[in-house]
Structure formats: structure tokens, C-alpha cells
Design brief:
Strand order of the largest sheet: 1-2-3-6-4-5
Radius of gyration: 20 Å
Oligomer: single chain
Distance between the termini: 13 Å
Structural class: alpha+beta
Bound molecules: adenosine-5'-diphosphate, magnesium ion
Low-confidence stretches: 24-29
Number of helices: 13
């Protein structure tokens, strides 16, 4: 890496915070975890949730997500939407593991205590929490720049949990519902491309009030091999599955499902939003070919579209995602590279 280049989000986590060797040195004086507790830690940094043995055969699935004004939401966002989204992004990480929500903590930094704002924020938050029977169990409150940090706790069978590391060669790659609308809306707000107010009305809710696919995740236990939620962009997030599973992939980019609004846009914009757009919180998952019918039945049962968008391939040397167009032709390399770049908070 070039010395003058800033560290990316994932590089800095790996460099300063992820300590897999320490974790594994059970019994060593270097280990910060006692051997007794080591047995409880089933999965650490690097997946959508960590897994801790719950002692009853199931595991606690734990995840944290933070939203910062100006970075994750616009200053004029509706407080009820913000309450919803703060919890939705955390529920989405449970969904990506196939875990069932149990409870969450809420840490708030607020520039000032405004009664009306807090009433709306908490209503948005609790409406979603109640829909998932997920209890607020604690937190912290301080003055400061508007920041919302939630840690969420769910339960899952550790043998079936949808780990990023479990994709197998020859798996189908699937995505739920449609992707790209949140990015399309963001571009509208930023005047990156023209959007009519009717179009914004269609796609803006996908950015402000995403739907975590909790029921889908739960139903995929024992069916799918691996899953991730699409928070940073479909290709970038899929890359995490491929990396941890040591497989490659081909993606049929024009088969990636888009909304009617996005389909009306140019092919270039549609590809950009579906492949690289973040904030969709749909599930991208891999499953054996033998489970196609079961997955279609789950989709029908939930009234949720599920679409096959590619397959995993054997890893030869480097991690590679091949992007194929509607005629099954590989995209030119420069275009492929452009799409493969994902969102990174520090670059
Ligand atoms: P997600 O998008 O699923 O929320 P992220 O991409 O934010 O996950 O993070 C990738 C992994 O790194 C996750 O396992 C997360 O728990 C972990 N992680 C992120 N930030 C830190 C940190 N400061 N210290 C330790 N682990 C972290
Ligand atoms: Mg995630």
C-alpha cells in the first residue's frame, strides 16, 4: 500500500482491532481471553454478527451499528425515520446471520434535548422494535454531535448461522427484493442526476426507512450457506463473502433486480445503483442449486421477490468477480473495475 494513501475502513480494523492470533493463543499470557471464555467465543470480528455460546445450544448473535449526522443521514431527516433506520440497520445484521432479534441498547449523542424531536424519534424506533418483539434494554445518553449507536442481540443456532465464510463452490447467488433505490434517491438529493418529485416519492422511503429482512434470514437457516446484508453496495458486500469463503463468482449484472423507477433510467445508471449503491439492506446469500425450489417457496410465502443473480466459482488465484452482461459477455476490464469499487468510509 502507498504510504501516503489513507487506510481504508477494513484495513484499519484489520491493522489495529482484529487480533485473531491473540484469540487463538489459548492459555498464552498474551491472550486477553481466558481459556474458559475462549470456548464461548464462536465467531469474532469479520461477520455481520459475533456469536457467543448462549449455554442452551443456541448462540447470542451480537452486532453494533452507528449512524452519524452528515455521514449516514441528512441533517433535515425526519426524526421518526431516523429512529426506524437506526434500529433497521442493526436488525439487518441479525437478518444476515439468520438470527432472531431479542433486545438492543441505544447510545445517543444529542446536540440538545428537544421534546418533539425525541417523541418522534422514539416512536419511529419503537414501532419497528415492537414489530420484531425486540426490547430496548439499556444504553447511554450524552450531549454532542447527533450520533445514534445501537448494539443488538439475537439468538441463532450456531450450526446453521449464515456465516460469510460458508459459501461453497457452485452455489447460486441470490438477492432479495430489489437493490439500488437508496442510491438512486441519494443521487437525487445530491443532484447527481435528474429525479422528478414523483420518482423521489417512490424511492426515497427505501433510503430513509429500509426494511430489514429478518423473516427471510430466519427461514434461510439450513437452506442457504452464507449471507450478508447489502449496506455498502452489492458487489463490495458480496466480496466479503467470497473473501472469507475462498471462492470466486460470476454475476449476471443485468439480472440484478431493480425497481420500476430505476428500470426507467439509463442502463449505466441502473448498473451503478444496483451494483455499487449502498443502504439497501437487502440480503445477498448463497445456496446450493438443490435448494432453488425451497428458496422460491420461501419468497412466495413471505411475498418477497428473490432472484438468482450469479454463481460462485472455484478460486484459482486472486479473488475475482466476473461481471457478465445480458448476452453473457464479460464487461470490459475498466468498466468491471469501476463497478467493483465499493463504498469505504475512509477513502
Ligand atoms: P456491517 O456492515 O455488517 O455492519 P462492517 O463492515 O461495519 O459490518 O464491519 C466489518 C466487521 O468489522 C464486523 O464484523 C464488525 O463487527 C467489525 N468492526 C467494525 N468496526 C470495528 C471496531 N472498531 N472494532 C472491532 N471490530 C470492528
Ligand atoms: Mg452487515
Amino acid at each position: 500500500m502507498n504510504k501516503s494513501e489513507p487506510l481504508g475502513e477494513f484495513d484499519l480494523i484489520r491493522k489495529f482491532f482484529d487480533r485473531p492470533n491473540l484469540h487463538r493463543q489459548t492459555g498464552s499470557v498474551l491472550s486477553p481471553i481466558s481459556p474458559k471464555h475462549q470456548d464461548l467465543l464462536q465467531l469474532g470480528i469479520g461477520d455481520d454478527c459475533a456469536l457467543l455460546d448462549a449455554g442452551d445450544g443456541s448462540s447470542w448473535a451480537i452486532s453494533s451499528d452507528m449512524l452519524v449526522e452528515g455521514r449516514h443521514f441528512l441533517p433535515n431527516v425526519h426524526p421518526a425515520d431516523l429512529g426506524h433506520k437506526s434500529l433497521a440497520v442493526n436488525l439487518s445484521d441479525l437478518a444476515a446471520m439468520g438470527a432472531t432479534p431479542v433486545g438492543f441498547t441505544l447510545s445517543l449523542a444529542l446536540p440538545s434535548a428537544q421534546d418533539e424531536w425525541l417523541a418522534e424519534f422514539s416512536t419511529g424506533l419503537f414501532t419497528l422494535a415492537d414489530a420484531h418483539h425486540c426490547q430496548l434494554i439499556g444504553g447511554d445518553t450524552t450531549a454532542g454531535p447527533l450520533t445514534i449507536s445501537i448494539t443488538i442481540f439475537g439468538k441463532v443456532n450456531p450450526q446453521l448461522a449464515l456465516k460469510r465464510s460458508n459459501a461453497q463452490v457452485g452455489d447460486d447467488i441470490w438477492v432479495s427484493h430489489v437493490v439500488g433505490d437508496a442510491r438512486l434517491a441519494l443521487g437525487g438529493y445530491r443532484h447527481e442526476w435528474p429525479m422528478s418529485s414523483a420518482e423521489m416519492q417512490m424511492v426515497a422511503p427505501r433510503m430513509h426507512t429500509p426494511t430489514p429482512r429478518v423473516a427471510l434470514g430466519e427461514k434461510l437457516l439450513g437452506i442457504a450457506h452464507a449471507a450478508i446484508d447489502v449496506s455498502d453496495g452489492l458487489l463490495g458486500d458480496l466480496r466479503h463473502i467470497l473473501q472469507r469463503s475462498h471462492v470466486n463468482a460470476e454475476i449476471w449484472i443485468d439480472a440484478v433486480p431493480a425497481s420500476a423507477t430505476l428500470k426507467e433510467k439509463s442502463l449505466e445508471l441502473r448498473r451503478l445503483c444496483t451494483l455499487c449503491g449502498g443502504d439497501d439492506y437487502e440480503l445477498c446469500f448463497t445456496a446450493p442449486v438443490s435448494k432453488r425450489d425451497a428458496i422460491m417457496a420461501i419468497g412466495a410465502d413471505l411475498g418477497l421477490q428473490v432472484t438468482r443473480i450469479g454463481r460462485t466459482l472455484e478460486r484459482s488465484a486472486e479473488l475475482e468477480i466476473q461481471l457478465l452482461d445480458a448476452d453473457s459477455r464479460r464487461l470490459p476490464e475498466n468498466l468491471e473495475q469501476q463497478y467493483l469499487k465499493s463504498f469505504d468510509h475512509f477513502k
